[in-house]
Amino acid sequence: MIESLSALDLLLAGGLVAALGVVQFWHGLQLTRSLLMGSLRMVAQLLLIGYVLNALFATESLGWVLLMALMMLLLASYEVIARQKRRIAGWQGYSIGLLSMGATAASITAFALLFVVQPAPWFTPQYAIPLLGMILGNTMTGIGLALNHLTQMAASQRTAIEGRLLLGQTADQAMSGLKQDAVRAGLIPTLNMLAAAGVISLPGMMTGQILAGAPPLDAVRYQILIMLLITAATGFGGLLAVHFGARRLFDGRERLRLERLAPPKR
Amino acid sequence: MFAVRAVCAEPGFSAAYQPVSFELPASHILTLHGASGVGKSQFLRALADLTPHQGEVWLEGRALSATPPAEWRRTVAYIPAEPAWWAETPLAHFATPPPAAWLAALALNPTLLESPVERLSTGERQRLAVLRAVALRPRVLLLDEPTANLDATNAAALRGFIQTYVQEHAAAAVWVSHDAEERRAIGGDSVALLAEVPS
Q: At a CB cut-off of 8 Å and minimum separation 6, what does A129 contact?
């Protein structure tokens, strides 16, 4: 089993960051404060989720697991839209995020639990929550990048898109190249992850399982599963988000409606 | 053949000009003028159904609102004052290459078709944009100052080309021109676009 860490152990590691803060202060860098706040915030967030997971694991109730999953999904769809340079304004933007993540990350997690991992019961929170978290985190990044690419390119290439419409192209035809680019942009981190796995980086979950005493080959098998699930979720999520996002940019008369994007964020 | 009834801007979308109505028989060109910024381009965009607008437009008895948008824009071709080019060469923007006679009529060298777009002059691009639209055999041309960057000779050549197309195909055109002399040379009716008086 894993060596348990005491509060003193963590204080020792915190001492390293404190030392960094002191050195930065000497050099007149204005980073000490952000360093302190960032570290404290991280500790608070992780402790909080630790207690939440503790309570959740104790209940083993489907209702609470679903509630937690829903919270994660809502937070992820908010984050994915809020970080956009030019987000799709209004509730439509958030619902595109929610829909494309719910339809992929959530259903792929359910698929993995029901047919692949098969814990008993299938919603065992020790499996369900971390699995959803990992898939959701990656899907969120992918969908965010894809939508960001889509909306920014649509705004900067407005005259070209309208030029295509004027030659009698449908909205789908006028957007096809741009949509492909957006889907590709969303998949780049996943493709990098696949290429780097085990060669450049030891994936976090595998490392964690090995630290916890699991045989490396078992850990590797789990990691392969996760990466395949992440790739599928990110890919399908990007496709869905770009499809719905591009549709939102046009009205029923196939007119490009850029006023549906919020003003650019600095 | 081309009927426009009470078309004006959807509030909040563009400059507010007074509602426009006219009926344009086949083989006719209507010229359109108005003060700078009154919304002439916005009006043409409305006729091409590129922006939300009020009023209704009919082409040969068929209403804009009853026509699929892509089909409407292919048959009612709007050629903006600054046409967009997205592919490497002009030729890539044509479904079928333009006939040599058209290029000759507009004094365009055929090699221009395969030159990088950014190496063409503004006037060359403007004339090629007209050809690109006309190649789709539209029924109505919406022209936004198509001769703005052309010298007198080339402007007259383009005018002749468009007049010939409209005559030969029993088509029609709405031509925005700020130049009274040009409007006289085009002939036909002229309409002034007026700014909406704030109430």
A: A53, A56, A65, A68, A69, A72
Q: Is B50's CB within 8 Å of A163's CB?
A: no
The answer to whether the CB atoms of A163 and B86 lie below 8 A apart is yes
Is B169 in contact with B22 (CB distance < 8 Å)? no
* Chain A residues touching residue B50 (CB < 8 angstroms): 162, 165-166, 255-256
Amino acid at B122: T
Question: Which residues, 6+ apart, have CB-to-CB distance to A185 below 8 Å?
Answer: A145, A146, A148, A149
Domain boundaries, chain A: 1-59, 61-260
Total count of residues recorded for chain B:
199
Residue of chain A with shortest Cα separation from B133: A167
The shortest C-alpha distance from B136 to chain A (Å) reads 8
The pLDDT tens digits for A146-167 are 999 999 999 999 999 999 999 9
Asked if residue B139 is part of any domain, the answer here is yes
Q: Which residues of chain A from 63 to 102 reach within 8 Å of chain B, CB to CB?
A: none
Tokens representing residue A70 in the block: 């829903």
A168/B48 touch (CB, cutoff 8 Å), yes or no: no
**Chain A nearest CA to B90, separation (Å):** 13
Per cent of chain A over pLDDT 90 is 64
Q: Using an 8 Å Cβ cutoff, are A88 and A151 in contact?
A: yes
In a domain, B151, yes or no: yes
CATH number at residue B91: 3.40.50.300
Q: What is the pLDDT of residue B198?
A: 65
Shortest Cα–Cα distance, B46 to chain A (Å) = 11
Alpha-carbon distance A177 to nearest alpha carbon in chain B (angstroms)? 11
The single-letter code of the amino acid at A77 is S
- Positive or negative, the Cα torsion across B2, B6, B10, B16? positive
Contacts of A170 in chain B (CB under 8 A): 69-70
Q: Tell me whether A156 touches chain B (CB under 8 Å).
A: no
Express each pLDDT in A105-134 by its tens digit: 999 999 999 999 999 899 999 999 999 999
B138: domain range? 27-38+68-190
What domain count does chain B have? 1
* Residue corresponding to tokens 């796995």: A197
**Residue at B56 is within a domain:** no
Question: Does the residue B133 lie in any domain?
Answer: yes
- The Cα–Cα gap between A179 and A157 comes to 13
